[in-house]
Amino acid sequence: MGLIFIRTIIIYVTLLVVMRLMGKRQIGEMQPFELVVTLLIAELACIPMADTSIPLLYGVVAIVAIFFLHQIVCLLDLGFKPMKALLSGAPSIVLNKDGVDDKQLKKNNLDVSDLIESLRAAGYFSLDAVDYALYEANGSFSALPKSGYEEMQTSLPVILIDEGKFDKENLRLTGRDKSYFLDILRKQGCKSEKKVLVMTVDGNGKAYFQRKGEKYKVLELGWEEKIW
């Protein structure tokens, strides 16, 4: 027991020194290659701590080797732009002045509901309240709101159509049936909900409507009273 305790202290101190030398970004929001390094170091640290048959020096040497590899990758990341894009990726603009960019979403294994969730977490509840939204290379989310965006968020929008499919629960929430909204789609030149990338509607009857591959529209449905 005492031996394991001492080995754990040595590995802990080694990890503390190595992580500190890797810099502040390694401790905060990590790039993909930094996450790989962190996972490898964690695995390498566990083995010599738990298994006394493995020489402690093996674990320390492996951790230090990973540290030097990390430093080399960091130099390449900082010194060569093409290498930086290859190692860390690039920001993806998933919402612009034309609306939602579903190609960029799919490129990042995301869908419209993921985007809306990220917007809500950032304090933006309407898709039309934001000019640009993007996911950074490290996965964090950023958005540039429109001037006076607060006035566009007087009621909580819900997803009515998500990539060609009606959300039955939210449809029931509106108090209207499917045919009511299909009629609205036809008036916009859209014969089927399958052509719709996203449609949201709030309690005031304001709808965000975007066909696949086209610019979005904001529609006023003319509801006489607020639904929610």
A few lines on this structure:
The protein has nine helices and nine strands. The chain is α+β, with helices and mostly antiparallel strands and 228 residues long.
The parts where pLDDT drops under 50 for at least 5 residues are 24-28
* Tally of contiguous helical segments: 9
Q: Main beta sheet: strand number and arrangement?
A: 5 strands, antiparallel
Helix content: 40-55%
Q: Please tell me the overall pLDDT.
A: 85
Structural class: alpha+beta
Overview of this structure, please?
There is one protein chain. The protein is of the alpha+beta class. Helix content is 47%, strand content 18%. It is built from 9 helices and 9 strands. The chain has helices spanning 2-21, 24-27, 32-50, 56-79, 81-88, 102-107, 112-121, 168-174, 178-187, and strands at residues 92-96, 99-100, 130-135, 141-145, 158-162, 165-166, 196-201, 206-211, 217-220. The strands form 2 sheets. A 5-stranded antiparallel beta sheet has the order 6-5-7-8-9. β8 (206-211) and β9 (217-220) form a beta hairpin. α1 packs antiparallel against α3 (32-50), α3 packs antiparallel against α4 and α4 (56-79) packs across α5. The protein is elongated. Mean pLDDT is 85; it is low at 24-28.
Sum up the structure in keywords.
18% strand, 5-stranded antiparallel sheet, alpha+beta, 4-stranded antiparallel sheet, 228 residues
